[in-house]
């Protein structure tokens, strides 16, 4: 069963899809509808049982995080919320837990009116335009999502113990 999203004109900002991430001005280029659809597309494409999400402290983060969680869980995947972390911490969680997809809500060095997503799959392998991000973009543009009665759950995970162990193991 496919579900069509009728507001696709808000999801066609192709300029937000960069070589290695998704970034745009909130809410004109990237917004809750876009991020929710990206979450749905990632679950439909990669079929993860769980998705780890981390984020920074931008003004739009709370709204986008809620939409991302909604999109992921409505497709049946579970969310592991690791809280406000650095991107390297998210990558570490991706490589050291069972999360098959990991998403960092951030626009890196850009000013606070921007937000975006850095996405990686198994063992912290980032996806870029030539390694999966173009497929996500096209899937979102089509707006045809698999419908499921199974909803995912959300759990919180403190990433610091795993991070501290990794740092200690390096010394």
Shape: globular
Q: Determine the fraction of residues in helical runs and give it as a percent range.
A: 25-40%
Oligomer: single chain
Q: Supply Rg.
A: 15 Å
Extract low-pLDDT stretches: 1-9
Mean pLDDT figure: 92
Strand % is 15-25%
Largest sheet: 7 strands, mixed
The tally of beta strands, per DSSP, is 9
SSE series: EEHEHEHEEEHEEH
Distance between the termini: 52 Å
Number of helices: 5
Alpha-beta classification: alpha/beta
What would your notes on this structure say?
- The chain is α/β, with parallel strands linked by helices and 171 residues long.
- The chain has 5 helices and 9 strands.
- The strands form 2 sheets. Strands 2, 3, 4, 5, 6, 7 and 9 form a 7-stranded mixed sheet that branches. A two-stranded antiparallel ribbon has the order 1-8.
- A hairpin with an 8-residue loop joins strand 5 and strand 6 (114-121).
- The protein is globular.
- The relative contact order is 0.22.
Per-chain topology:
Layout: E1 2-4, E2 22-25, H1 32-46, E3 50-55, H2 61-74, E4 78-84, H3 87-96, E5 101-105, E6 114-121, E7 125-126, H4 133-142, E8 144-146, E9 154-156, H5 160-170
Parallel strand pairs: 3-4, 3-5, 4-9
Antiparallel strand pairs: 1-8, 2-6, 5-6, 6-7
Helix pairs in contact: 1-2, 1-4
In short:
This protein is α/β, with parallel strands linked by helices and 171 residues long.
């Amino acid at each position: 069963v496919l579900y069509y999203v009728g507001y696709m004109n808000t999801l066609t900002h192709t300029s937000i899809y960069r070589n290695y991430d998704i970034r745009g001005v909130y809410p004109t280029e990237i917004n809750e509808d876009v991020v929710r659809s990206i979450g749905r597309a990632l679950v439909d494409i990669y079929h993860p049982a769980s998705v780890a999400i981390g984020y920074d402290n931008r003004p739009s983060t709370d709204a986008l995080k809620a939409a991302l969680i909604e999109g992921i869980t409505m497709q049946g995947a579970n969310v592991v919320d690791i809280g406000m972390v650095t991107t390297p911490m998210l990558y570490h969680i991706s490589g050291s837990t069972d999360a098959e997809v990991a998403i960092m809500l951030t626009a890196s060095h850009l000013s606070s009116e921007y937000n975006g997503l850095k996405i990686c799959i198994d063992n912290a392998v980032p996806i870029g335009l030539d390694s999966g991000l173009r497929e996500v973009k096209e899937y979102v543009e089509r707006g045809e999502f698999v419908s499921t009665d199974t909803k995912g759950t959300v759990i919180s995970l403190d990433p610091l113990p795993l991070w501290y162990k990794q740092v200690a193991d390096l010394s």
